[in-house]
Amino acid sequence: MPYQQSALDAARLVARGAALLAAVVGAAGLSGWVFGLELLRRGPGSDAAMSANTAVALLALGVSLLLVTRRPLTPGMTVVARAGGALAAVLGGLTAVEYVTGVALGIDELLFKDDTARMASEVPGRMAPNTAAALVIGGVAVLCASAARLPAWTSQIPGLAVLTLGMLRIYGFAYAVPELERFGAYKGMALYTGMALVLLGIAAFLARPDRGPAGLLMNAGTTGALGRRLFVTVLVVPPLLGGLVLAGEDAGLFGARLGTALLVCGHVAVFTTVVFAALVVGRRVELAHARAAWQVRQNELLQAFMDHTPAVMFVKDLDGRFLAVNTTFEESLGLPRARVLGRRDRDVMPPDLARQARAADLAMLAEGEPTQHEELIALPGGSRSFLTSLFPLKNASGAPYAVCGVVTDITDRVAAQREVRRANRRFLALLESAPDALLITDGQGVIVLANAQVQKLLGRSPADLVGTPVVDLVPAPRRRRHDALLRAYLRQVDPRPVVVDQGLYGLSGDGAEFPVEVSVSSLRADEETRVFLSVRDITERRLLEAERAERFEEHRRIAYTLQHSLMGEPSSLPYLPAAHRYLASVQDPGVGGDWFDIIPLDAHRTGIVVGDVMGRGLEAAAVMGQMRAASHALARTDVPPSRLMTGLDAFVADLADQLVTCVYLVVDQSTHEVTLCSAGHLPVIALPPDGPARTLRTPVGVPLGVNDPRAAGVPFEQATQPVAPGTTLALYTDGLVERPGTDIETQIDTLARTLGTALEGVPADREGLDQTADLLVKTLLPDTAAHDDDVTLLLVRLPVPKGEGHRA
User: Fold this and answer.
1) CATH, residue 325
2) Number of domains observed in the structure of the chain
3) Does pTM surpass 0.70?
4) The PAC domain covers which part of the protein (predicted)?
5) Residue bearing the bigger pLDDT, 151 or 1
6) DSSP 144-198
7) Which H, E and C letters describe 413-457, residue by residue?
């Protein structure tokens, strides 16, 4: 941290300055002996003078600490520093031996004759005992500070001891207390010596400011700031209060006892203030720690989310260094996270892939908005298609500080889309090869598309017909009636496909009119309407009525066969009783877009799908057949319901102007859960064995085909709900419950109530479900011969584990 580094640099500067000043004091005292200057040997108002040995030792310690504080130490600097420390320790130690043993070792006047003694008890040239002790401790501090392998406290604690001895001398001088200057009756410490010892203590303590007790005091955090304030308070406040009390006593304002009381009160007041200030700082530290712990937890949750995401996820800084990756990223590269974090793309990816990734990051940052693109990447196991989403992470000011990416393997989806496009091309080819003329108009009856058969039927090219009102293809005297029929069809609330062959005529290119049969269907999506007109010349049919009737019946049989062959029969599963009913509309050729299927997925899971292709006729049936095949194939891949809907949506998007509703369920017999996803379909009704019928709640997405395939559409969501064993599920299409003039919600409620009533007393087997299905159809469709829409009903009874009862 920059602040931390600046604090350490300042501490080292203070240490060097203190060491230099201590060396200057020692040199000044030594100069006083050399030149006989009393002022340099003895401070003003001081009885004791600095001895020559003390001056040499202080100079040596000052120079040694000045070298020690200049990191890194060279071998030569280390030798000089240790020599200075050893010299001071030896001088102090020999003097201490002299005091203890009473034997003069001949070192006191080794350099100069001492004529400064003022007391009979003083030995000429001998330093004070407290000075000797301080020099020994100071020498030890220097020796420890010069040894990098020793802990920092080995030099810092002795430094504080030296500082304390020097402060005692200064306090004695400031408070006029001679007892603080000396040990007993021995010679006292010189004032200059006390000042130098304070400087040496500071230098020794701050020689290594990033470690030990000094590291605690100089750290950039809250505790360091609090410690420095407390340290300054301890050094300044007690001496100041003591000086004020002594001044009051000397002035006769109060006596010693009152002065002591005032001193105690002052200390209590000051340190109480310090304590509360420390509590405020401590509370801030606690809050910061709580916020940091919360942030750590959020980071852990984010990492857990990333690690459980099957897609590759990563976060990089603006220079391309990885800040976070998930387990899928590790698995894809075969590198552990520790070897990825802090490195760039080129350090962990193949060169080509790294350059491609970096270019994508820079392009996204240049745009400043999220980007998404597909790319084909050659991997050792073969080429794979990936969808890469990149977006910037921005700070509070809106400036990006990181890049987040999500890379999803969409090889299977791309293959499915490719197959869908092939199927769509085949379907369009099938339409072009149809024997009838096909006209598609907008909601105003203006032609927007025509197939190649209109050339043969009407004598006009398909391109020439685009933009022409469809009534212009009718003989002029009959146009009003034809236009009225078309508009009446479009005014219906939910127009169904119809086939009209009475009173309709076409106009050929040479002006001749001929009778036609027109199949009409419509598709409404949002505010757009498309009308599908299949036009056939029925001149020969009109001439041969009997043959026409026979052909019509044959056409109906073919249509029914096509419908049932496309729909197929659902799987009959012994552990999952089911019953179904399908009724084709009586107002069209008998084909439509409803389908249903029961798909065994594994030993414990079964897929159930019901869908409805909007519109009627062969086109709807053909779409239905493709949808049933596609849904069956996707379900067999064991994709979740939401992904199945996404795949079907992509399929429908490639079909021209198609709209499909669908619901897909996955029943898990082992966990008694149903996972379902709905694309605009009616709700599934569930009847538990011990309660009333209810609809299964699930997010209802838009119908298939609504989303724009060129842009991100509304996603399909799935929901999982518990279901009791023995529950009966009812799936159906809108033909069963939708009637003109009735509310569809009311019809659904009627279906639910009828289901609950019908299953009372009915055995929980296939025959019982068949009886219930007949009753539901009869109740909801009183006149089955007049219904105008396809009807699909599927009842499924969930199995009951052995040993449990069932609904009677």
Assistant:
1) 3.30.450.20
2) 5
3) no
4) 371-422
5) 151
6) HHT-TTS-THHHHHHHHHHHHHHHHHHHHHHHT-GGGTSSTTSPPPPHHHHHHHH
7) HHHHHHHHHHHHHHHHHHHHCCCCEEEEEECCCEEEEECCHHHHH
